[in-house]
TrEMBL record:
Residues 8-161 form the Cytochrome b561 bacterial/Ni-hydrogenase domain. The chain crosses the membrane at residues 12-34, 54-75, 98-120, 140-160, 213-233. InterPro entries: Cyt_b561_bac/Ni-Hgenase, Di-haem_cyt_TM. SUPFAM superfamilies: Transmembrane di-heme cytochromes. It comes from the Bacteria. GO terms for biological process: respiratory electron transport chain. This is Cytochrome b/b6 domain-containing protein. The lineage of its organism: Bacteria, Bacillati, Cyanobacteriota, Cyanophyceae, Nostocales.
């Protein structure tokens, strides 16, 4: 029997790929920054690079810019991949296939929340703290905690996805092939339909999503907005 590779929408692959690329780069440069300026909980012999914090901030900024689009896609076009109203009940079916699929939805949702926390705490920091040796700010500790959480979240995300879909599922996110309906040539038409829907009261559909996802989406979007606004008053 011929095994077919799962198909992922092109827009999902682009948003997921860009977000993942910037986040992984931010994670790696975050540890390098910690290793250069701090190292109180262990370090490895990385070369000292005093400009590494600026590089980390750049990748963090790119992540913050692309993440809202990815979050909107996840909570609307991809909401079935996130927790559902019956997800907690299905967690009781330990060992069954539905248990793994439900666990996968939880880890997908956990990654979104972990990334939100990392981006928010990063924006609350001051880029002069570490070069000055100011290592005891609450927001710095929060951002260090966010680094640990996002690393664990991504590890679980990859582990559970590989369990659910195996290597074909992971490779499907890296494929460059796309179906005709996903062609970028149709994107302008999709944007026009989306805008027309808004003008005709499409926003009412926003509130028809599961209540849990609705509030999680509001929490994430407000956190991103606050991450831009709060630093203006610091």
């Amino acid at each position: 029997m011929k095994l077919t590779r799962p198909y992922q929408p092109l827009l999902l692959r682009i948003l997921h790929g860009l977000t993942g690329l910037f986040v992984v780069a931010a994670i790696l440069t975050a540890f390098w920054t910690y290793d250069t300026y701090d190292g109180r909980w262990g370090r490895i012999p990385l070369p000292s690079y005093r400009e590494i914090e600026g590089l980390h901030g750049t990748f963090g900024l790119y992540s913050l810019l692309i993440f809202p689009a990815f979050a909107l896609y996840a909570f609307h076009r991809g909401y079935k991949r996130l927790i559902q109203p019956d997800s907690f009940a299905k967690l009781l079916q330990v060992g069954k296939p539905i248990w793994w699929y439900t666990l996968n939805r939880f880890t997908n949702t956990f990654v979104l929340l972990a990334l939100t926390f990392a981006l928010f705490t990063g924006k609350m920091m001051n880029e002069t703290w570490l070069p000055k040796g100011e290592l005891n700010h609450a927001w710095y500790y929060a951002h260090l905690s966010a680094w640990v959480i996002i690393v664990v979240a991504i590890a679980l995300h990859l582990l559970i996805n590989s369990k659910v879909g195996g290597v074909p599922l992971l490779l499907s996110m890296l494929s460059w092939q796309f179906r005709e309906k996903d062609s970028p040539t149709f994107w302008s038409g999709h944007v026009s339909q989306w805008w027309l829907g808004i003008r005709q009261g499409f926003w009412s559909d926003w509130f028809q999503s599961p209540l849990t996802l609705f509030w999680l989406e509001i929490l994430i979007l407000l956190s991103i907005l606050a991450a831009w606004i709060i630093p203006l008053f610091k």
